[in-house]
């Protein structure tokens, strides 16, 4: 592969109640993605279980795990086995009573490069994440893998341009957005198409504004809980620095997407659309305020 180029893989899968089964299937998908040539692979948000945030239930804290525990050990091993870098979202148990929605990043030798903790925590019907997760406190991090520089944001982080901009300024070639997003059953008929379109559009805009690749693995399938059901809309995709979608999954099928990342294309896009050059960094003081009256 030419210098400055590598392949990324994202995995869209359904989840079942059994954690062991989800993990085994995810590992199988990882191996398949590696066989298809992916160098850096990202799983979807909270892939080891069903999306338990559809309700507020203390028993779900039993799904959490430490960063270096049996679950992450398996993922570290498969990264080393396949010679790939891996973004592995986890329900992190940091300490009793302190939990995060996180992603561990492993390099091609299985070593832990670091951890990202989801910064923006939603609280909406069937997305009761504030009940489970403390906001991230590690900042926005770029990880130098054996293949390229990657950033990680998680789901609700997708809607915040500040987060992707900071990762671009830190040198990310690609930003991964592991995701669990779907339709509320009472909203799909009226708002479903526009909601999914907005989700795709905002991430394409991050790619364009920053001159980077973005990649969003979402889950698929319908998952029910005591407070209702979510139909996850799949549609995982990769887009390039011009905002062009280079790979996309269907809404209702498990999928492995593999796509190219090229630093040459990043340089080309930023040369012709020099948004980073023309930023007026002397005028943005108010950006750190909650609201400017």
Task: Give an overview of the whole structure.
It contains five helices and 15 strands. With 293 residues, the chain is of the alpha/beta class. It has one domain: Nitrilase/N-carbamoyl-D-aminoacid amidohydrolase. The strands form three sheets. A six-stranded mixed sheet has the order 5-4-3-2-1-15. The chain is globular and about 50 Å long.
Instruction: Give Rg in angstroms.
Output: 18 Å
Number of helical segments with 4 or more residues = 5
Q: Given the helix and strand composition, which structural class is it?
A: alpha/beta
How far is it from the N-terminal to the C-terminal residue, by CA?
A: 52 Å
Q: What is the string of SSEs from the N terminus onward?
A: EHEHEEEEEHEEHEEEEEEH
Low-confidence stretches: none
The whole-number mean of residue pLDDT values reads: 96
Strand segment tally: 15
Q: Report the sheet-strand fraction.
A: 25-35%
Examine the secondary-structure arrangement and name the CATH architecture.
4-Layer Sandwich
The CATH class assignment is Alpha Beta
Here the CATH topology equals: Nitrilase/N-carbamoyl-D-aminoacid amidohydrolase
Helix content: 10-25%
| Biggest sheet statistics | 6 strands, mixed
Report strand order across the widest sheet.
5-4-3-2-1-15
Cα shape? globular
In CATH, the homologous superfamily goes by the name Carbon-nitrogen hydrolase
Number of domains: 1
């Amino acid at each position: 592969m030419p210098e400055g180029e590598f392949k990324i893989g994202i995995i869209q899968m359904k989840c079942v109640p059994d954690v062991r089964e989800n993990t085994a299937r995810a590992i199988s998908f990882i191996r398949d993605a590696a066989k298809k040539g992916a160098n850096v692979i990202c799983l979807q948000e909270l892939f080891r279980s069903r999306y338990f945030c559809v309700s507020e239930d203390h028993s779900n804290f039993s799904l959490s795990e430490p960063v270096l525990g049996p679950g992450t050990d398996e993922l570290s091993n498969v990264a080393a086995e396949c010679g790939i870098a891996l973004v592995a979202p986890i329900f992190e148990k940091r300490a009793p009573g302190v939990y995060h929605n996180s992603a561990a990043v492993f390099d091609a030798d299985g070593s832990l490069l670091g951890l990202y903790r989801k910064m923006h925590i939603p609280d909406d019907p069937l997305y009761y994440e504030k009940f489970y997760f403390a906001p991230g406190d590690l900042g926005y991090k770029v990880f130098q893998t054996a293949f390229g520089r990657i950033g990680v944001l998680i789901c609700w982080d997708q809607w915040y341009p500040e987060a992707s901009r900071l990762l671009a300024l830190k040198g990310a070639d690609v930003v991964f957005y592991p995701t669990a997003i779907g339709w509320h059953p009472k909203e799909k008929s009226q708002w479903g198409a526009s909601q999914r379109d907005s989700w795709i559009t905002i991430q394409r805009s991050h790619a364009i504004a920053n001159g980077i690749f973005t990649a969003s693995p979402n889950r698929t399938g319908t998952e029910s809980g005591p407070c209702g059901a979510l139909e996850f809309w799949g549609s995982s995709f990769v887009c390039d620095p011009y905002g062009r979608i280079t790979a996309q999954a269907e809404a209702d099928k498990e999928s492995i997407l593999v796509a190219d990342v090229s630093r040459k294309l990043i340089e080309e896009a930023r040369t012709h659309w020099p948004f980073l050059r023309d930023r007026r960094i002397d005028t943005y003081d108010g950006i750190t305020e909650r609201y400017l009256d």
